[in-house]
Amino acid sequence: MHRRIRNLRPDTRACRAVGGIHVLIAAFTLLVNTLVQAQSAPTLTSVTPNYNATGVPLTSSLVFMFDQPMMDMPVILGMPPLIGNLEIVPADSELSVEGTWSEDGYTLTCAFSPDWPPNTTITWKLNPPGTFVPLYSESFVALATVSGSFTTGSGGGGGDEPPALVSSTPADESLNVALDAVVTFLFDQPMKKITTIGDAVQWVETGIDPANFVYSWSADGLILTCDYTGDFPASTVVAWTLNPESSSVKLESEATGEPLPDDTYSGYFMTGQGGGGDDCTPDGIPDYWGGYSIYKQVEYQQTSGSDPVTAPPTPYNFGVYISSPRQGPVVTSGSVTPPGGAKINLGSGPMSGFHYFSDEPASESDLNTKYPAGNYALRFTRAGEAERAIQMTLPTVTVPVPKVANYGEAQAVNYAQNFTLRWNSFAGAGENDFISLVVTETMGKVVFQAPDLCVPRELPVTATSIVIPANTFQNNKTYQGTLVFGRMFYFSTNTVPEMAGSGILSRQTQFAIKTGTGGTGTPATFTGSRLLPNGNPEMTLTGTPLSLHTIQRSGAVGNPAWTTVGAVTMNAAGTAVFEDTQTDKVFPLFYRAIAN
Q1: Do 466 and 422 form a contact (C-beta atoms < 8 A)?
Q2: DSSP of 107-123, one letter per residue?
Q3: What phi and psi values does residue 385 have, to the nearest 5 degrees?
Q4: Residues of the chain whose pLDDT is less than 70?
Q5: d(CA 449, CA 455)
Q6: Which of 349, 353, 355, 354 is nearest to 148 (CA)?
Q7: Is the dihedral of CA 155, 156, 159, 164 positive or negative?
Q8: Which 3 state secondary structure label does DSSP give 467?
Q9: Nearest to 297 by CA among 43, 151, 503
């Protein structure tokens, strides 16, 4: 059951309707202004078609999803001199809209007539400044102005052409996706509205049950909605493939029965961290915020009780990134200027509004020469705003290398008992220094971290150990720990609205934590091997999609002594390539892959 609101369009053909609602709007606005309380403002969590989608069908509706229930308000297109709550550019005097609110108030579907013009960029804006009937949450808080755009296709979909996927929501490679997000797929032509999807949509993640998805089609057959019963698990990669070759059911065109091409459309997103409360995030930063950061780090790997060694193949890193707030304004460009150096323009992608620069010098000496201590100027522009200039001063300081003191104990953890992890002290640590510990399992899912505001769990810079509670881990599994010693030389949450800024100088050590006797996953298969021009062996593996495998080698057969030389994660197609970059190789060598 939906709440359907017919368009109340403020144009000359509807002047009596518009005139009739002026008094109601004035009274409503007075009531809202009187009743507004200190409630959180609603935000847009997703939109279909995706931001900047291309090839959008001309009959597409706009589907908006919010993070909280909204009031049952009419959708009104603006027409000068009146400003409605939905603005469409380019404007068309013939365009009208029918808005439909879902029963729970979280979703607004806007159907338009006539169809969109072909090969045109359409810009939309909700609650534009000056609107006379704004959209409000049920707690009487107005939605902030939010906008986006998409580009229509040629309008030639259908015929004998197979259907194509235009966009997905959440967008491919999205991060910090809400745990209650609804997944949608938009196609370029109407699809058969099959009621049993079955394995036509393949989901890959051990923490979710595909049977919990409830599927529904839009009236025009262009949008498939996949609603997961209950929340997605936190900090989890959720991968999908449409019409996998092995599927017994196929997504097909309504007009011709032509199937969506097999194994052509796939993607993934990663859910947010969730936490101990409705609005809790472990680091205290809302997951819908954007951020900007300059970091300089050296990565190490510890595989025994000996000192950690630099982690192959690229342990020395300098980087800059800028990510847009989930609801905008979108960051359109960025740059960084090192002390005494030339400006470096940041690259774009893989997601809209994300800009970055990354460099991996060959040695720590090269790292310090190219990116010395001193003042760094970070500049970026957000849509509709003036350029912002952030100054960060990277200090002259030596951060010690973290080392796990009880590495042997960490390789035989009794999962049913508390386990105390120990490490060396952070010598010379000051008030701007910090220690961080994160333990993850397959596909990066966080199982333990410190500090964590949601527990709450503290980790002072003076700490040399922490207790990991019983039953945090599962039996017979291998986890990856990352221990960081760092200095925060810049931090701000109020310089740029809804963006957290940081400057970090750090060293981090990765190590394994094992319970029981090791992993129980599906074994991988070596399908190819080769000797690279640099002298390193490289091999190709196949196995379970997105599974993690530890790579070990030995110089003997029979009863060899195996040494861990790295790890690989299968891609969504179930393949991976591993290069042994260790410098102590003496041939012949034998390799094995252990599922984690």
Answers
A1: no
A2: EEEEEEESPPPTT-EEE
A3: -125, 160
A4: 1-40, 80-81, 156-160, 205-207, 235, 273-281, 349-352, 442-444, 517-522, 546, 557-560, 596
A5: 10
A6: 353
A7: negative
A8: strand
A9: 503
234: nearest Cα among 419, 46, 443: 443
pLDDT of amino acid 68: 84
Q: What is the mean pLDDT of the chain?
A: 82
Question: What's the Cα-to-Cα distance from 400 to each of 314, 433, 509, 550, rounded to whole Å?
Answer: 19, 11, 11, 27
> Where are the extended beta strands (E) located within 102-191?
107-113, 121-126, 146-152, 165-169, 174-177, 183-187
Burial of 547 (0-12, 13-18, 19+ CB in 10 A): buried
pLDDT at 419: 92
| Spatial strand order in the sheet of 265-271 | 174-177, 265-271, 237-242, 201-204
Question: Across the chain, how many H-helices and E-strands are there?
Answer: 3, 38
Give the position of tokens 């010098």: 361
Count the alpha carbons within 13 Å of 434 in the hemisphere toward its beta carbon. Answer: 16
SS3 32: helix
The maximal CA–CA distance of the chain, rounded, in angstroms, is: 91
d(CA 578, CA 567): 8
With beta carbons less than 8 A apart as the criterion, state whether 175 and 269 touch: yes
Q: Tokens 């796990």 correspond to what residue?
A: 404
CA distance 508 to 402: 6
pLDDT at res. 36:
34
Query: In whole angstroms, what is the distance from residue 269 CA to residue 285 CA?
Result: 20
Q: Retrieve residue 162's tokens.
A: 């197979």
User: What strands lie across the sheet with 165-169, from one edge to the other?
Assistant: 165-169, 183-187, 223-228, 213-217
Q: What is the DSSP string of 547-595?
A: -EEEEEEES-SSS---EEEEEEE--TTSEEEEE---S---SS-EEEEEE
- Collapsing DSSP states into helix, strand and coil, what is residue 502? strand
What is the layout of strands, in order, in the sheet containing 96-101?
3-5, 96-101, 107-113, 62-66, 44-48
State how far the Cα of 543 lies from the Cα of 306, in Å rounded to an integer.
32
Q: Strands 537-542 and 478-496, how do they pair?
A: unpaired
Residue with tokens 């007539």: 113
